[in-house]
Amino acid sequence: MRKVAFITGALGQDGVLISELLKNKGYKVVGFIREKPRRHSIANSYFEKF
Q1: DSSP category for residue 27
Q2: Rounded to an integer, what distance in angstroms lies between the CA atom of residue 3 and that of residue 16?
Q3: Tally of domains in the chain
Q4: What distance in Å separates the CA atoms of residue 27 and residue 5, rounded to the nearest whole number?
Q5: What is the pLDDT of residue 36?
Q6: pLDDT given at position 24
Q7: Could you give the C-alpha distances from 28 to 6, 13, 24, 40, 43, in angstroms and in order?
Q8: Domain extent at residue 12
Q9: How far is Cα 50 from Cα 12, in angstroms, rounded to an integer?
Q10: Which CA distances in Å does 14 have to 20, 31, 40?
Q11: What tens-digit pLDDT sequence spans the chain (50 residues)?
Q12: How many C-beta atoms lie closer than 10 Å to residue 44's C-beta?
């Protein structure tokens, strides 16, 4: 049976690193992210372009 990991904050620095580590160990990784903030930020501008 394959192990499943639920990662909150999957787009953050720690979430990305933990997700990669667990994927390499054979886990199925499910990531959760919070809704886009209402105020404008540099990160939002970057992600909206791609």
Answers
A1: -
A2: 18
A3: 1
A4: 7
A5: 65
A6: 94
A7: 9, 19, 10, 33, 27
A8: 4-49
A9: 17
A10: 10, 12, 23
A11: 889 999 888 888 888 899 999 999 999 998 887 776 655 555 544 444 43
A12: 13
